[in-house]
Amino acid sequence: MAFLALERLSKHYGNMAAVDDVALTIEKGEFVSLLGPSGCGKTTTLQMIAGLVEPSAGRITLDGRDITNEKPNKRGLGIVFQSYALFPHMTVAENVAFGLEMRRVPRPERQDRVREMLSLVQLSAFADRYPREMSGGQRQRVAIARALVIAPPVLLLDEPLSNLDAKLREEMQFELRRIQRKVGTTTIMVTHDQAEALSISDRVVVMEQGRMTQVDAPYRLYEQPSNAFIASFVGKTNLIAGTWRREGGAGAVDLHGLRLEALVADFPDGTPVTMSIRPEKILLRKAGEGRLDGDIASRFFLGSQWLFTVDTPVGAMTVATPNQGEEPPAEGASVGLDWQPADLRVISATNR
After folding, report:
1. Is 16 helix (H, G, I), strand (E, B) or coil?
2. CA distance readout (Å), 255 to 72, 241, 244, 312, 315
3. For residues 29 and 184, what is the distance between their CA atoms, to the nearest angstrom?
4. In angstroms, rounded to a whole number, what is the distance separating the alpha carbons of residues 256 and 350?
5. What is the pLDDT of residue 47?
6. With contact defined as beta carbons under 8 Å apart, do 295 and 332 qualify?
7. Quick check: helix, strand or coil at residue 294?
């Protein structure tokens, strides 16, 4: 039996379905991210789990217990909001201890648990400081400590890193995962940042227009997207419309007369499809030596890599190559584009 289960969960506001017939099971100790653009239903889903929003239909069970209609304080879940919601008039230690006080935990035990939690988030020396005296990353760790100190069965994170600058955000991703692994708490995080979701999750749930469109391990989600939306939202990709052709035991994508070899896909011959290939899977060759020729329209140096836009007979394609310490072909140069057939993904043209 799954530790946490969402069974046909929906939330309607009039005729609009914010969340539509969601079904998801999460195992104990798992770290799952709900990923999607604004308005896709991920935050509403998290709020229904927390008890902050009442479902229109469906059921939520936690460790075999139906919590669909339980009040938030009865569920015992830990929640970290986007704003952290720390009490400005309380010290760090007092903020962390607040949930224990509400549960009438004896003072000696309360002090021990706060001390232990501050050590976990590496803030032992900051116990007597106030939130205004701390950086954004430190305040975020205080919020996590406050949520975890009550030993919740599930930790809910609502865009917990969105208020941090880019460098600190990247550092805190791995800090968050370290803390979660140390404690072993089942964790659900809402984010619109695909790099964040891919880097620290056991599984990622991609949501679009209130529905879950793919639930998978980060690597498989990136390498084997089920539709064009996921391919483009989870990382960068090149999407080109074509027609699927079966050729004996092999297959190819027909792009207006140009056929590109691909692994056999489960489509009837003649089906409209979308070709997807990641920029980093494409190799630059001399003109005439690749699967496709083109001219470099633009190039950008990003430090660890070069990013190119190449005009080809089938449309503009983005190419990312590692920085090898030498200057690559210049804008206007003719080049060949090459890749392994296994790196070309063939997905449904209908986005389903």
Report:
1. strand
2. 54, 7, 9, 12, 10
3. 5
4. 19
5. 96
6. yes
7. strand
| Residue 193, H or E segment | none
Domains (ranges, CATH) in the chain? Answer: 4-228 (3.40.50.300), 236-348 (2.40.50.140)
CB atoms within 10 A of CB 238: 23
What residues contact 57, with CB distance under 8 A and at least 6 apart? Answer: 8, 9, 10, 12
Angle, CA 273 vertex, CA 346 and CA 219 arms, to 5°: 30
Q: How far is Cα of residue 80 from the mean position of the Cα atoms in its chain?
A: 17
Q: Where are the alpha helices (DSSP H) in 24-122?
A: 42-50, 72-75, 92-102, 107-120
**C-beta of residue 49 within 8 angstroms of C-beta of residue 156:** yes
Flag residues of the chain having pLDDT under 70.
Answer: 248-249, 351-352
- β-strands 78-80, 154-158: how paired? parallel
> Distance (Å, rounded) from C-alpha 187 to C-alpha 192?
16
Q: Specify whether the CB–CB gap between 131 and 139 falls below 8 A.
A: yes
Distance of CA 201 to the CA centre of its chain: 8
CA 92, 96, 99, 105 dihedral sign is negative
Q: What are phi and psi of 345, to 5 degrees?
A: -95, 140
Could you tell me the two tokens for 259?
Answer: 């056929």
The per-residue pLDDT for 266 is 82
Please name the amino acid found at residue 331: E
pTM of the model: 0.89
- Rounded to 10 deg, the angle between the 166-183 and 107-120 helix axes is 130
